[in-house]
Design goal:
alpha/beta, 14% strand, 45% helix, binds flavin mononucleotide, 316 residues
Length: 316
């Protein structure tokens, strides 16, 4: 079994990847998407989104980080994929799941699930541009309005040359409403001969077991569940209990110690911590009252102070 940390725009950045992969259990991370429109993007775009490119394409605990691209133009996706890999990304992942509207005539993500031929053209162009020893992978939802093209789309991507497919087992129209339809992943697995990674609604180790049974997939991808319960991947692999609340508080304080670029210092920690709390509340009842106080604070040092106080109370 492999466990992959899901791409989450605006949430799972390199600091979060560093923190979560240190807790163990993860085999691979996928970055937030790089939007490709009609140009070859400069190196700095890739290294900003994936600073791990500067450290051999791995987090500090040695977990590989693959760059994800989003776009609709096969030729531009191909050029940018080749650049991502040349910069050190271990392969490249293509996003066919993002429920976004067209921006400046540029689309990408889930809307392409209505265009099976485009999926094929993108996969083929990107596969041809990326060295053969580097994987080209893709992530899709079951469909846009419905799942009627799920099998055709998966087949098209495989014919185009992808070597692994992650399936978020919902349509775009389903949004994030539970359930995730894991058995539909099994239907896709029956028609393609590549590894299919199951994704969606894995919040607890028991969900991982059920998801693997119902999808038949060995490999899984964790998104929100890994933020709600930071050691979820490690628990799935090794067993054990969820991190105790004081350990979570220590993680939050560790998060405050990370160095961030000067232009985002200050706001970064407070914004991201509040965002992280919105997930932690799902697992930890203790997060709720603390969040009520924390959300009124703006400055990082105030938040750090509050977290330290809470930790002291817990230790007493
Ligand atoms: C805030 C947020 C941002 C996301 N950003 C991306 C993204 O950049 N690329 C992508 O392929 N999926 C993205 N996703 C989808 C997740 O990777 C994943 O498929 C989804 O959350 C379902 O998995 P989960 O139930 O384990 O969270 C995002 C999801 C959320 C909630």
């Amino acid at each position: 079994m492999r466990i992959i940390l899901a791409p989450m725009e605006g949430v799972v950045d390199h600091l979060m990847r560093d923190m979560l992969t240190r807790l163990g259990g993860f085999d691979l991370c996928i970055t937030e998407f790089v939007r490709v429109v009609d140009q070859l993007l400069p190196r700095r775009v890739f290294t900003r989104l994936c600073p791990e490119l500067l450290t051999d394409g791995k987090t500090s605990s040695g977990v590989p980080v693959r760059v994800q691209l989003l776009g609709q133009e096969p030729a531009w996706l191909a050029e940018n994929a080749a650049r991502a890999v040349a910069l050190g990304s271990p392969g490249v992942d293509l996003n066919f799941g993002r429920p976004a509207k067209t921006v400046n005539k540029s689309k990408g993500g889930a809307v392409l699930l209505k265009e099976t031929e485009t999926l094929y053209q993108i996969a083929r162009a990107v596969r041809a541009a990326v060295p053969a020893d580097q994987p080209v992978t893709a992530k899709m939802r079951l469909g846009y309005d419905d799942a009627s093209l799920a099998l055709d789309n998966a087949r098209a991507l495989v014919e185009g040359g992808i070597s692994e497919l992650t399936v978020h087992a919902r349509t775009k129209a389903d949004g994030y409403r539970p359930p995730a339809y894991w058995p539909q992943i099994a239907n896709i697995r029956r028609v393609v001969a590549i590894p299919v990674i199951a994704n969606g609604e894995i919040w607890q180790p028991a969900d991982a077991i059920r998801c693997r049974q119902e999808s038949g997939s060995a490999d899984i991808m964790l998104g929100r569940g890994a933020l709600a319960q930071p050691n979820l991947a490690a628990r799935i692999v090794h067993g054990g209990d969820p991190l105790a609340w004081p350990a979570v508080l220590q993680l939050l304080l560790q998060y405050s110690d990370y160095q961030v670029a000067d232009d985002v210092r200050g706001l970064y920690f407070s914004t991201r911590t509040k965002q992280w709390f919105s997930y932690l509340r799902l697992q930890y009842p203790q997060a709720e009252p603390l969040f009520a106080r924390l959300r009124l604070l703006r400055h990082s040092h105030e938040i750090v102070q509050l977290l330290q106080q809470e930790l002291a109370v817990q230790a007493a």
